[in-house]
Amino acid sequence: MVLSSCTSMLSKIHHLIVLSACLALFSCRKPDNFDAVPFIEYRDFEQLKSAAGPDSIGILHLYFRDGDGDFGLAPADTFAPFNQGSEFYYNFFITYYEKQNGTWVKIIPAAPLPGADTVSNNSRIPLLTPEGRIKTLEGDIYMELFTNNPFSPWDTIKYEVSVADRALNRSNQLSIPEIILSK
Questions:
Q1: pLDDT tens-place string over residues 24-47
Q2: Distance between terminal CA atoms of the chain?
Q3: Cα distance between residue 72 and residue 133, in whole Å
């Protein structure tokens, strides 16, 4: 009876050691070695076709990674340098171009009403900093964009995009392949 009890106890200890070793092995995930400066990569652009008229909206798909996880802005991030009117109020930057007579021309969309601000595709990506010790981030960004400038006769556009993290590090800048619109 004592021998059976000792064998049972040793078996339980053995199982506990194996379980502990497995937990230690999988819980100590080595962080990915990403740079603290964000990186973006173009994946796709899907033009949403309109049956009623001209193309007007598209979905831009990007891959991103950030080594220290200080990516995104909270709704309360409204003080400098994230205050409205400052360069870093937005953390997703986009520039709109039209191909005019074979040349790419940067367009600043007109204000919808006299005296109003110009239209911007820049956006605020929400706060994504992960909980825990490992802060590296990677994932996909899907951004809905207005594609058709109703004040322009030109039908070929492209975008240049970049992002910034909370330490104000700007990512690489991407030039999205040209998009031909139905006007």
A1: 433 444 456 788 999 999 999 999
A2: 88
A3: 18
Per-domain residue ranges of the chain: 1-30, 39-180
pTM over 0.90: no
What letter represents residue 23's amino acid?
L
Q: Residue with structure tokens 């367009």?
A: 107
> Which uninterrupted H or E stretch holds 51?
none
Contact in structure between 166 and 67 (CB atoms under 8 Å): no
Burial status of residue 71 (CB atoms within 10 A of its CB: 0-12, 13-18, 19 or more): buried
Residue 27 phi/psi, 5° resolution? -85, -20
pLDDT digit string, tens, across residues 51-60: 777 778 899 9
